[in-house]
Amino acid sequence: MPDVLRVGIIGAGDFGAQHARAISTLEGVCLVAASRTSEAALAEFTRTYGGKGYTDYRDLLAQGDVDAVVIATPHHLHTSVVEAAAVAGKHILLEKPMAPTLAECDAMLAVVEARGVRLMVGHTSHFVPAYQRAKALLDSGELGEVIYAHSTMIRPWMTPNRRDWHLDRTSGGGMWLTIGVHVIDQLRWLAAAPVASVTAELQTRFHRQEADDVGVALLRFRNRTTATAVCIGYRTGVFSFVTDVTCSEGLLRIDHAKGTFVGRGETWQQVPGSAAEDWMAQGLVREWQAFAGALASGDPMPITGDYARQVMEVAFAAEVSAEQRREVAIA
After folding, report:
1. Which run of H or E residues covers position 104?
2. Euclidean distance between CA atoms 196 and 293, whole angstroms
């Protein structure tokens, strides 16, 4: 790898801009290109963040000065862009969810292996200070065995960046695939074990759309941990994004912004350095540091394609469970 990792952003929209801001803070990582189908929006993006603009991402991939790409396109376009990037020899940071079907996840894994490029999937919670502190505590064994966990994200669904494709499951939309993968990932990571089975209920209760806006799932892990995952996209309410973990030697409460708290002796104690009002910005910066560092060192990616596939397998099993109204085992 060169001394400076030269990056192209494919999908230079709202979240692409967040990636561009994170990249701008780092030494050794440089934004050199961006693509978006809207010529006017692309021109504004490159004026703000730099790099050369391409309305066709395939033209971006043809450039020899691009070492790696971040793919932040609509979910149903992920697979074709990943495949093209791999064929072009570009390393890939892919936004979640990995893909709308398990077959597409498998196709991605096959093409990156065949082409010898590196893939990381952007489950940003792994890099948010509150979750990093919580994971370190759990891994240390200080709190004993994880018995039960609950992760919830309750938020407005019709935010300014919501697009038509978000409202249709056939294009990878819905609250469960868009947001639910966050809570599944957090629980899978903190439990440190694969999911054995899922029982779920997915509904459309708040909005007129061809996708869910309510998802609730019971997860049973192979290490006997039990967890509940809840994601709700309300019409009006109050934002809540919290994970609670019950361990044999104490409790954890994890709030992205307020930080991590340990519960013992009927009191909560905040873990130093865990609070971050700008948790998303910090998470993305650390995510890019991890991605660039793994490319430079040759070490395994901190979030591999295989791990991301496990998250998606749980998400899809929940959909089957909700449709067939039964518990679904995961092989």
Report:
1. helix 102-115
2. 33
Q: How far apart are CA 71 and CA 91, in angstroms?
A: 11
Q: pLDDT grade, residue 161 (50/70/90)? A: confident
Asked whether residue 177 falls in the same domain as residue 192, the answer is: yes
3-state helix, strand, coil in the chain (%, to 5): 40, 30, 30
Judge contact between 77 and 35, C-beta under 8 A.
no
User: Which CATH number does the domain housing residue 211 bear?
Assistant: 3.30.360.10
Note the pLDDT of residue 3: 87
Which distant-in-sequence residues (6+ apart) come within 8 Å of 73 by Cβ? 10, 11, 57, 81, 95
Give DSSP secondary structure letters for 12-33.
Answer: -SHHHHHHHHHHHT-TTEEEEE
Phi-psi region of 144 (alpha: psi -120 to 50; beta: other; left: phi over 0): left
Contact indicator for 66, 60 with CB cutoff of 8 Å:
yes
Query: Is residue 111 within 8 Å of 138, Cβ to Cβ?
Result: no
Q: What is the pLDDT of residues 64-98, one digit of tens each?
A: 999 999 999 999 999 999 999 999 999 999 999 99
Q: Assess whether 32 and 113 both reside in one domain.
A: yes
What pLDDT, in 10s, does the model give residues 169-204? 999 999 999 999 999 999 999 999 999 999 999 999
Claim to verify: residue 27 and residue 167 sit in the same structural domain: no
Q: 151 near 227, Cβ under 8 Å? A: yes
Domain match, 47 and 193 both: no
Q: What DSSP line would sit under 272-313, residue for residue?
A: TT---TTHHHHHHHHHHHHHHHHHHH-PPPSS-HHHHHHHHH
Provide the residue range defining the domain that includes 161. 126-276+311-329
3-state secondary structure (DSSP) of residue 96: coil
> What CATH number did the domain enclosing 28 receive?
3.40.50.720
pTM of the model: 0.96
Looking at the structure, tell me whether residues 174 and 321 fall in a common domain: yes
Query: Looking at the 3D structure of the chain, how many domains does it have?
Result: 2
CA distance 174 to 215: 10
Question: Shortest CA distance to 73 belongs to which of 89, 52, 88, 58?
Answer: 58
